[in-house]
Sequence to fold (568 residues):
Amino acid sequence: GFKVIALFYKWSSPIFSRYVSKRYLIANPYVNEKKYVNDVISVVNNVKPLMIIPIGFIDTLLLSKYKQIFPSNIIIPIPEFETITYVSRKDNLVKLCERIGIKYPQIYSLNEYQFAPTGPVVVKGVSDASKPEYVFFKESLLDIIKLKNKSFMVQDFVPGVGCGYFALAKNGSIIVDYTHVRVIEEKPSGGPSMLACLNFNPELIFLGRKIVKELKWTGVIMAEFRRNIETGDYYLLEINPKLWGSLELATSLGIDIPKCLIEVFLFNRKPKLRVNVKSKCFTWILSGLYYLKLNPKTWFRMLKKTLSDGLIYTDLHFNDPSEFLYSLLTRLIKVLTCKHSKLRTDLDSVYRRNLAYLSKVLRERRIKCIIFDFDGTLVKLDIPWNEVKAKLVKDGLIKPWDTIMIGLYKSRGKKEYHKIDEVLREYENKAIKKLKKDHSLNALLKKVSENVKYMAIVSKQGKQAIERALDIMGISKTISLVVDREAEILRLEQLKRVLDKLGVLPEETLMFGDTIIDIVSALKLNIMPISVTDNPYRFQQYIEYGVPCFKDAKEALKYIIIQWRCVT
Fold:
């Protein structure tokens, strides 16, 4: 094996690892760039390493900038300085995407955003430390911009899941690559992985390889995408020219990127990989310890995954006692003293502020119509979705990396669509037979109908199934219109159809939904969204986005009735 020599400018758990032979404290590159470089060269001259592997973005950037002053016999497997600076600026990625045919979220000027119906946007810096802020309601835009420096951008928010493409390449040729999808993030609104799963998505690999080839990339690279959960489209968010934080996921499954780096650039040989397919996920149970205080059910979900998969697929490094002890104690102290950065936001006050905004809307707008999503919002159909997907995948009707709804959307206009529809109808009909009359919901809807002219349903279920369910629940008479998946497959188009059929304006409408696609589609039309979910992770996500949220539709209806009563 090789000796690992660690250079650091701030204390962190890897410094205490038993796998580190020597440690050197060097200058902080953010404070003194030249002293940092001189310190690195001093260590290099002292220990004469075979290879330097930069870890953080600033390390990669500065080593590439001053690469020519390092001894020529030392291998530094990174691209040229100009390439790194180019890809690290997010505003440059638009041109790259246009050249190679990859989607990128639309960018707006401030005037465009303020006066155009754009829907939710993300305000973030253009360089490495982007610190994104989410603007779901235009009223909060100016407050967020005041906190940003001059180098920021406003771009479309993509309603979907985070997924990444990771590769090691040499002069544009792929040595090893893979993809993963994020299940739990540092914050539900977005951030690094706390639970991620390897999935080798061929569509994403195809896009990632186009990037590597176009840039003639050398070294490691991570391309962060966001996938629209309704259409399945991939949008490139950023490119990171460095080792990524979720590296342990790949290493635990047999894709040892640092080892591959050494084999390729030091020994000039192609690495042989043995990928462990028994487990495909990794949980950062220790890094996510703050969730125990912030959102306990989410942390226990992570713990359940840990116990199911095994400790080897977590960041609990029992085989490295000193590193593990430092990591555990520092994180535990921060959580107990509430000094962890993720505990600084008072979610309760944000939640109340979001409800106050809804109250303001109810006072100021004359609401004539309420639109409900069906399954997950008005009712919870007892459908085993994992079983449904497994059947559709087995029958070759959808791809393993697609959701059912994405598969349905992709198959529209094809014979596969009707086969998927048949399977869904079978399960929907079984679930509807289990429904019972809901007197309390019926009473609330009747009470609300005294103030609104219409109530409608938009759904990805079939119309026949929805109407049968409404009859069983005893609420069919309160619903004016049903728009199902046969009429329109996309939520935005479903909402447009309701507005058109009932002749109401978006400003006169509320939309109840349980998914982020419900919320974003409503906001794109200037409909006031109300999120309904009993999923604690998703509930926190909506709070962070600034969306009023309730644990069920009845709670939301009661709140609205009380607000209208106060107005009258």
Q: What stands out?
A: The radius of gyration is 26 Å. DSSP finds 22 helices and 18 strands in the chain.
